[in-house]
Design goal:
With 996 residues, the protein is of the alpha+beta class. The chain contains 29 helices and 38 strands. Pfam families: UPF0182.
Length: 996
């Protein structure tokens, strides 16, 4: 009695704890989404997922349990003794009321079906039980992968359906792992011993898994219900591409669910019938009764109907084939597999209709019943012949002897649709023939380009920042980002600068800078000071940022700073001039939301927050921003204490009625929680701007904080027909959304940057209050948007192959490109895309672009360069400049080789690389100026201990000359004014040669 009451109390306590945990999670999430203003997004997702799980799990459980219950009622009793040689009248006695007498020997011989002896019965039940085990393994793997995935992850790929190819993969996987093989056979044997209990338990588990599959794929269901037209069709079926993006994934999900449901139901019911009457013990199964046959006909009809749907969907999945010379359906797929899948689907529909007709209009005697079984046998024989044998024969005998001619139209499809999917068809391709006629006058004419040549790379600048600007150990600069600002005056420095005379243009001068946020890294707080109060109440935010011009050098070869330090007075940060302070708003640059703010904090408490250090003391502050959720009341404290599993929140006496908790302060986690259906760029960047000058924009509070994070967001898919999949597993991408996060208030705004994208149009209809027009973004922020590097990398990777639009050239891969290598430090690595302020050929003004050069495959000379524009009305325009193939244009690897082979330069680098220091060769920049190319590489010197990189030399290469000097100005003089070259410059001629 005691144990029973203890068990009941435990169950009640466990249920209450789970309910409390669920309520606290739901309540905390509702409060958080209400705080950020996206409660509708959360509720739509919550309701959609809840409905999907309940509906799918309920339908699955009802179907399986009802059919298993019917099978239990119709199966033979265990008391039935079976003898194979009995008269037909015995079956009639079996159906009478006296059939249960244990001393009666019966043989229920069924018309049309003979009894199964042990030599047929045993393999049949073993195969069915093993098939059940394979299904458990397949759907179990799906459940485990989904269980370990984030609940809101909308980019999960659709798992493979339980088709013959998947079964073969599972068999190979099981055979290769002994423990897996033993577990599978052990499970199959257990099903044979305890069929009733295990089959019912598996049915319940499967129902929950089916519900989980649809639960996790809520985004695909919503997109199916809200499709948007692409206004473009694919060439094989002539269907709008929206069918493949929005509809096909939903039908594949439906197939995954119903195939598992109907197949398991059929197998489980068949096993119950076959194992009834102790058939294995007695060595014979008496045959299926008419009611059992009718039951199996109905379930088999539904299963065959799903097989027909599977083959019908396989027709459309041919556009993702990887078996041919190009991505998508090739000659063999179209001429062999497509008609084969169509035929198999139509025949399966016919068989399913007959089985279902027989189920509803059962006739004890039917002359066609035996033909159906023969038809099923022929159908099973046709599956491998049409799906494997015939395509193999066609490929080897028809396609391969004349592959180019056969595959040419399909190659053309792959090229065209891949270029569409990655927006490569929007590239404006032009010829570019460097003339080598650049003069000193051209250099002066392109003064803005020269003044913005980047000499400081991100890595050495961050190393220097960490030494000079972190102020305290608990501050950290996690990243530095390239941006451009219009400055009213030019900062000056007493140190030599690498530029020519710099003029101030009307309205300000455009400068390329590196901006880095000084965030708070709580893990760097001394271990003895890592208390709960410090973690959540005192160390709450970072403070300030640095801004450095990319091309100037301060005393000692260190970076020059436009914005730096923490001033300790009302000015907050130190600026290099009044003009800089007027151009870059400073305010009170507190960073409560950033890239490494991974802790939740409480503000408005009795404990004052650390603001910034000032000399030997600290300055404290209280947060007055709009972020956070009030937890002053007792019940809210309990709610969030349970949600965060932090019971100090209940016990502390430091809270006040106005106390707030700030959650999800990491900007990536913050925007991912709001819009999990978007993919986000890996590099958020900080912007300092007055976003509400006129005090008229409610999305941007007019206060003393001017720091914002801009994050690029993408809509992606892996379902674009004929589009070759990139390394990221996607074959469609658009930079459709720009996200702005207030670093102080935590306010998040989503702006549609590409209204032509149908996917973001669908999401806009699903969540109508989430997205704003890009024109609604404040101009001061819009001036800082830039073409994202992640998208540019994906496009540039695809462009290496898909710039070839001629099918024959593509087939031969005779003009494939590659991204060149450069020496960084002492190691070779691929050139990364980089931002420049430069003038494009035929464009009369300088602009901010993202740039990447190309070389031919397995060669080192330049063949082209790819650029993306970022300014104003030209934002997003892509340009490709192709060099003449008959002329040598030096590539980065050739220039690096010339630098490292020069006896004087290499000797100087070797001297620096002595014990205690090392020379770092920075990014080699290829800079287009007029109709020529200029190569610039900075060289840094750093100590092996306590690294503090300094810029010591600049290498400039142009045509047949290479110069290394202390400054860029001197190096350019060495190139274009050799008669006045400073003594420190080194000039070496470069021999002319041919492309290798």
């Amino acid at each position: 009695m005691f144990w029973k009451w203890s068990l009941r109390l435990f169950v009640v306590f466990l249920g209450f704890w789970l309910l409390l945990d669920l309520v606290s999670r739901l309540g905390a999430e509702i409060f958080w989404f209400q705080e950020v203003g996206y409660l509708q997004v959360f509720l739509v997702r919550l309701v959609t997922r809840g409905i999907l799980w309940v509906v799918v799990a309920s339908i699955s459980a009802a179907y399986l349990l009802v059919n298993l219950g019917i099978a239990q009622r119709l199966k033979y009793p265990r008391s039935l003794n079976i003898e194979p040689a009995q008269q037909e009248s015995v079956f009639q006695n079996f159906l009478s009321r006296d059939y249960a007498r244990s001393d009666r020997t019966l043989t229920p011989q069924v018309q049309g079906l003979k009894p199964l002896k042990l030599r047929w019965l045993l393999p049949l039940v073993v195969i069915l039980s093993l098939l059940t085990g394979l299904m458990v393994a397949h759907y179990g793997q799906i459940a485990i992968s989904y269980w370990h995935s984030p609940v809101d992850d909308a980019s999960l790929p659709i798992p493979a359906s339980f088709r013959p190819d998947r079964i073969w993969q599972l068999v190979n996987q099981i055979v290769s792992q002994i423990w897996y093989l033993g577990l599978t056979f052990g499970g199959a044997i257990a099903i044979l011993i305890f069929p009733g209990f295990l089959l019912t338990a598996i049915a319940i588990v499967f129902s929950a898994i089916f519900g989980l599959v649809l639960f996790q794929n809520w985004a695909k269901v919503l997109l199916y219900l809200h499709p948007s037209s692409f206004n473009s069709t694919e060439p094989l079926f002539g269907r709008d591409i929206s069918f493949y993006i929005f509809s096909l994934p939903f039908w594949q999900l439906l197939e995954l669910w119903l195939m598992g449901l109907f197949l398991y139901g059929f197998v489980a019911v068949a096993l119950i019938y076959l194992l009834s009457a102790d058939s294995l013990s007695q060595g014979i199964f008496p045959g299926f009764s008419q009611k059992q046959q009718r039951h199996l006909y109905g379930m088999g009809g539904l299963l065959i109907l799903l097989v027909a749907l599977s083959y019908w969907l396989s027709r459309y999945e041919l556009v993702y084939s990887t078996d041919g010379v190009s991505y998508g359906a090739g000659y063999t797929d179209v001429t062999t597999l497509l008609p084969a899948y169509t035929t198999l689907s139509v025949v399966a529909v016919g068989i399913a209709c007959y089985l279902l007709w027989q189920t509803f209009f059962w006739k004890p005697k039917s002359q066609y019943r035996r033909l159906v079984f023969y038809g099923l046998g022929v159908y099973l024989l046709l599956v491998p012949i049409t799906g494997f044998v015939l395509p193999t024969v066609v490929q080897y005998l028809i396609v391969e002897p004349n592959e180019l001619q056969r595959e040419q139209p399909y190659i053309q499809r792959t090229i065209a649709l891949t270029r569409q999917a990655f927006n490569l068809d929007a590239i404006d391709a032009k010829s570019f023939n460097p003339q080598g006629t650049l003069t000193e006058a051209d250099i002066q004419k392109n003064d803005l380009t020269i003044r913005n040549i980047r000499l400081w790379d991100e890595r050495p600048l961050l190393e220097t920042n960490r030494q000079l600007q972190q102020i305290r150990p608990y501050y950290r600069f996690p990243d530095a980002d390239i941006d451009r600002y219009t400055l009213k005056t030019e900062a000056t420095s007493d140190s030599p600068t690498p530029t020519a005379k710099q003029e101030v243009v009307e309205g300000g001068e455009r400068r390329q800078v590196l901006i880095a946020a000084r965030e708070l890294d709580y893990t760097a707080v001394p271990q003895q000071a890592q208390t709960w109060v410090n973690r959540h109440l005192i160390y709450t935010h970072g403070f300030g940022f640095t801004v450095s011009p990319v091309n100037t050098v301060a005393a000692g070869g260190l970076p020059e700073y436009f914005v730096k330090d923490i001033s300790g007075d009302n000015s907050a940060l130190t600026t290099s001039s009044v003009g800089i302070r007027e151009s870059i708003p400073i305010g009170k640059p507190r960073i409560y939301y950033g890239e490494i703010t991974n802790t939740y904090v409480m503000t408005g408490t009795k404990v004052r927050e650390l603001d910034y250090p000032s000399g030997s003391e600290n300055v404290y502050n209280s947060y007055d921003g709009q972020g956070g959720i009030k937890i002053g009341s007792v019940w809210r404290r309990w709610l969030f204490a349970n949600y965060l599993k932090d019971w100090q929140m209940v016990l502390t006496r430091d809270f006040l009625p106005e106390t707030k908790v700030l959650l999800r302060r990491n900007i990536k986690q913050r925007i991912q929680a709001i819009a999990p259906f978007l993919q986000f760029d890996s590099d958020p960047y900080l912007v300092s701007a007055d976003a509400n000058r006129n005090n008229s924009d409610p999305d941007y509070p007019n206060g003393k904080s001017f720091l914002y994070w801009i994050v690029d967001a993408y809509t992606t898919s892996d379902r674009y027909p004929y589009s070759d999949t990139a390394n990221e597993g996607i074959n469609y991408i658009r930079n459709s959304v720009k996200v702005v996060v207030d670093a102080y208030h935590g306010i998040v705004n989503f702006y549609i940057a590409d209204r032509s994208d149908p996917i973001v149009a669908s999401w806009s209809r699903i969540f109508p209050n989430t997205f704003k027009s890009l024109s609604a973004m404040p101009v001061t922020l819009r001036n800082h948007i830039r073409y994202p590097e992640d998208l540019f990398r994906i496009q540039s990777e695809r462009l290496m192959t898909y710039h070839m639009t001629d099918p024959q050239v593509f087939y031969n891969r005779e003009d494939q490109w590659q991204i060149p290598n450069e020496i960084y430090g002492s190691e070779a690595r691929p050139v990364e895309p980089y931002y420049l302020i430069t003038g494009l050929p035929t464009v009369p003004f300088e602009e901010f672009i993202l740039f990447l050069p190309y070389t031919p495959k397995q060669r080192t000379n330049l063949i082209a360069w790819f650029a993306a524009r970022s300014d104003s009305v030209n934002y997003g325009k892509l340009l490709l400049y192709i060099f003449p193939k008959e002329k040598l244009i030096y590539g980065p690897e050739q220039i690096e080789a010339r630098i490292n082979q020069d006896p004087v330069i290499s000797q100087q680098i070797s001297l620096w690389n002595r014990q205690g220091s090392r020379a770092i060769q920075g990014n080699l920049l290829v800079i287009p100026i007029e109709q020529s190319l200029l190569y610039v590489e900075p060289i840094y010197l750093e100590a092996t201990q306590n690294s503090l990189p300094t810029l010591v030399r600049v290498v400039v290469a142009y045509e047949n000359r290479i110069v290394m000097a202390q400054t860029l100005e001197q190096a350019l003089q060495g190139i274009f004014q050799p008669e006045v070259t400073p003594p420190a410059a080194i000039i070496r001629p470069v021999e002319e040669g041919n492309p290798q």
